[in-house]
């Protein structure tokens, strides 16, 4: 095993680099909520903050209200990318995906870059979207479209940039970790990958909402609100995306080890343990106790758990280079 501090420094350095590239193209002025509503809520928050009336319960209500401010589409996801996500749930041909991807040059560039990354590259690099899609195959292509669309739209913040940087890398790494675990227990790779990718998706939503409100929320209250509200918030987002019930359940319950009864939820709990082992948890704000219980619940013995940890470390190294 490599030195933990070295891994942590590499992970942070790389996530900062990844998000710097995203910030160059991200539009922070384009909000998913009407500006008039944001201004009204900001005034209310500032007044209540001065009066000492803001606590975790108060902010949880603000988060729930935010879903009523924009009911016509998925928060943060442009219509053309939402259409592409809907296409993923069909039996569309690779040619159909190519046509949609070509409509957005940014996504086309990102897919080609991923096809040339250490995880997927062959003996030579590819330069066209068609060759990139052939190299990836339909299953990996769908994985990467979900990954690219969701991480590039939800994972951006000015005020909480370091936190969101780590969340983005954790989401991508967790997707790959979940697929690795699924291969050991015969669970569908697609569902495991999606569960790993989106089970904490409520966190960046809440942080970007707080960012938009332009109110200096005390750190402890902010952290506790994210901790308590992100599962319900994430499930609300996933229902709008029409994601499978198993993945939604994983989002809602992955921190409740004693109550887990679905494999996708247990897989996500296991990926959190792997992230804890590899120092990928953002800001160390989760009170997660190291345990191999999720692996035992999946029927994975001690020896195989160690093998999975080593393989996931190798996956992380490939994601970082």
Could you give a quick summary of the protein structure above?
This protein is mainly α and 321 residues long. It has helices at residues 4-25, 35-50, 56-69, 79-87, 94-102, 105-115, 129-154, 161-185, 189-198, 202-213, 219-240, 245-253, 263-277, 293-297, 302-319.
Features:
321 residues; mainly alpha; Hypothetical protein af1432; 2 domains; 69% helix; 0% strand; globular
Structure in words:
With about 325 residues, the chain is mainly alpha-helical. It has helices at about 5-25, 35-50, 55-70, 80-85, 95-100, 105-115, 130-155, 160-185, 190-200, 200-215, 220-240, 245-255, 265-275, 295, 300-320. Helix 5 packs across helix 7, helix 7 runs parallel beside helix 9 (about 190-200) and helix 12 packs across helix 13.
CATH class division of the largest domain: Mainly Alpha
Task: Give the CA-based shape.
Answer: globular
Using only CA atoms, what is the Rg?
19 Å
End-to-end C-alpha gap: 18 Å
- SSE pattern: HHHHHHHHHHHHHHH
What percent of residues adopt helix (DSSP H or I)? 55-70%
Structural class: mainly alpha
Q: Please give the CATH architecture of the largest domain.
A: Orthogonal Bundle
The count of β-strands is: 0
Strand count, sense and closure of the main sheet?
Answer: none
Give the total of domains: 2
Helix count, per DSSP?
15
Q: What does the average pLDDT come to? A: 81
CATH topology call of the largest domain: Hypothetical protein af1432
Which percent band covers the strand fraction? Answer: under 5%
Low-confidence spans: pLDDT under 50, at least 5 residues?
15-29
Oligomer: single chain
